[in-house]
Amino acid sequence: MGGGAAAKDHPLEYFSASTLAAIVNYPLWRASAVGQSGFRVVLNSTSASSVHPSLAPYMYAFSPPYKGLGATVMGMSWARAAIFYGSDRGKEILEEMGASNAIATVLPPLVVSTVVQCVNMPLVRSTITLQNPESAVATIRESMKQIYNTHGVGGLWHGTSAGILKTVPKYCTAVVVKSYMDEVLPQVNPESPTRDRDKLIRSAIKSATAGVAGAALTNPLDVIRNEMFKTNLGLVETIRHLHRELGYSFLVRGMAKNLVAVSIPVASTIFFTDAFIQSGWFA
Fold first, then answer.
1. Which residues fall within 8 angstroms of residue 247, CB to CB, at 6 or more apart?
2. Which residues lie closer than 8 Å to 103 by C-beta, 6 or more apart?
3. What are the pLDDT tens digits along the chain (283 aa)?
4. Distance from chain centroid for Cα 154
5. How far from the centroid of its chain's Cα atoms is residue 68's Cα?
6. Are 164 and 117 in contact (CB under 8 A)?
7. Angle between helices 195-231 and 160-184 (to 10 degrees)
8. Rounded distance, CA 180 to CA 103, Å?
9. Single pTM value for the model
10. Contact 198/188 with Cβ under 8 angstroms?
């Protein structure tokens, strides 16, 4: 990222950008988790009850209590920082070793996002399960304990297959598109009096394109993973269950919320990283 800056010199910028993106986008993630999981949202207040059903998840997501906020932000922060820093640093290392541009671009996010998904899975499942408005569980610890008591240790990693199928293509797509846009977008004239603004505009275009591409591609896998969390069915059984209930429309369930909840955090992480590197605040 950062217009040619070496990733190895800016780990703090990557983590700070990922943390800021996670904090800002928590309500959007919450709305997406509720919508894709098919959780039933009932708004109790008189004013809220008149809201159109399609907006109910957003009303719920932006309203307290914010269950699992700290753990969710922590999990998202280290995960995205690891994926984007690991992808950019990995590309630098592979290129130094003489690897082709294609391998250097695709292999690091493929490996890092797979490892991150496996490590983060218990936290991912417990935070999504916690967002069910009808659940009496109030904390991440209680959510993990409930999953463990009901389904055993394996239950904490239930949905890993769908999670990997969703997360790995999403971040591989985002990283590849980011690298492609970095190459094809016109470079900023270093002598221009508006060079700082131009760099941010260029970064915004690159970031938005990468975020939308990653989110649109993986929506069906998000739906499958969240349904696995809700029903505890296996991957194939979950797909059959969704198809019986919704037909092929399950492929786009929660798409609008997902485009917002996934593309914005990914895009903002890329953009904030570029902005922090450009600012030199952490130098």
1. none
2. 94
3. 655 678 889 999 999 999 999 998 888 888 877 876 778 776 665 545 566 666 776 777 777 888 889 999 999 999 999 999 999 999 999 999 999 999 999 999 999 999 999 999 999 989 988 888 888 888 999 999 999 999 999 999 988 887 787 788 889 999 999 999 999 999 999 899 999 999 999 999 999 999 998 887 778 887 887 788 778 888 899 999 999 988 988 888 877 777 777 788 899 999 999 999 999 888 7
4. 23
5. 16
6. yes
7. 170
8. 14
9. 0.80
10. yes
- At position 215, the amino acid (one-letter code) is A
Please state, in angstroms and rounded to a whole number, the distance separating the CA atoms of residues 93 and 88: 9
Separation between Cα atoms, residue 138 and residue 206, nearest integer Å: 39
Q: Give, in order, the Cα–Cα distances in Å from 113 to each of 83, 110, 173, 181.
A: 6, 6, 12, 21
Euclidean distance between CA atoms 205 and 178, whole angstroms: 10
What tokens appear for 14 in the block? 């990557």
Helix axes 140-151, 101-130, angle to 10 degrees: 90
Contact call for residues 44 and 237 (beta carbons, < 8 A): no
User: Could you tell me the CA-to-CA distances from 136 to 131, 146, 210, 217 in Å, in that order?
Assistant: 10, 11, 37, 34
Structure tokens at 92: 């630098």
| Residue whose structure tokens are 């797979």 | 114
For the chain, the residue count is 283
Give yes or no for a contact between 104 and 94, defined as CB atoms under 8 angstroms apart. yes
Q: Give the model's pLDDT for residue 47.
A: 46
Q: Can you give the C-alpha Rg of the chain in angstroms? A: 20
